[in-house]
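pasting for the record
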Amino acid sequence: MSNQTKGVLFALFATLLWSVNMVIASGVKGHIPPVGLAFWRWTVACIVLAPFAAKRTFESLPILKKHFWYLTLTAVLGITIFNTLIYFAGKTTSAINLSLIAISIPLFIIILSRIIFKEKVSNLKIVGILILITGVLVLISKGSLQALLTINFTIGDLLMLLACFFFACYTILVRKKPQQLAPKVFLFSVFSIGTALLLPLYIWENTTYQKVIFDSTTILITLYVGIFASLVSFYLWNEAIRLIGTSKTALIYYLIPIFSGILAYFFLNQAIGLTQIISMGIIISGLFITAKK
């Protein structure tokens, strides 16, 4: 299997795992406080990864010290801030709006890649991106311009947009990862720093706002977001960036609405209509056009 194929598959699977996270972010409002969910999410990820990465991480301490500020900035953007903002956004906006705003991530990544790495954006790629956006808008609006124009935006939507920008910055930083750091060492370091920075916020939220109640729902959700939507997905996303670059990896993120629709069909018995099928075809066509050299 070529690096290109592996990179695409990695990015696809990471996007699929995050599609579930979007639904969770909107679905747990009122049950689990935002910082509490974020803190235990990354705590679980660190605990699961520790047996595989702790020893190697300890051996890499000299390299980690040398790149401490790079790792800290990466952790702040991708771990401490990004998902915490999504959970805050989910308190005041819908899963549909979260999916709509999430399509700004690839645009932010392409713009930042153009500014920082001088990556060229061909006319064909611009056309492909416009087709992708059209497909996503058709999917979310169900083909109705009136429905699109009447979508109400809240403070949660602004927080989600901010989260998207921070994740784009995280993705750009991953491309500059020191070669000496093994993927699991990089992940464990970033996860640990990001979780440590969340701890003061978690203590504040737990004492002044809302405590985390560890019932079966909380435990199941935390295990999912900690293992699959954090550890597995971030590893796959980072490896995809290494194998196929930031711009190509970013474009696959446009599949989140498609994955969300398919998941809703199988697990929530929500029908897939003609509009959804057409929009999926538009999005996939846009991906193929954008990927052409």
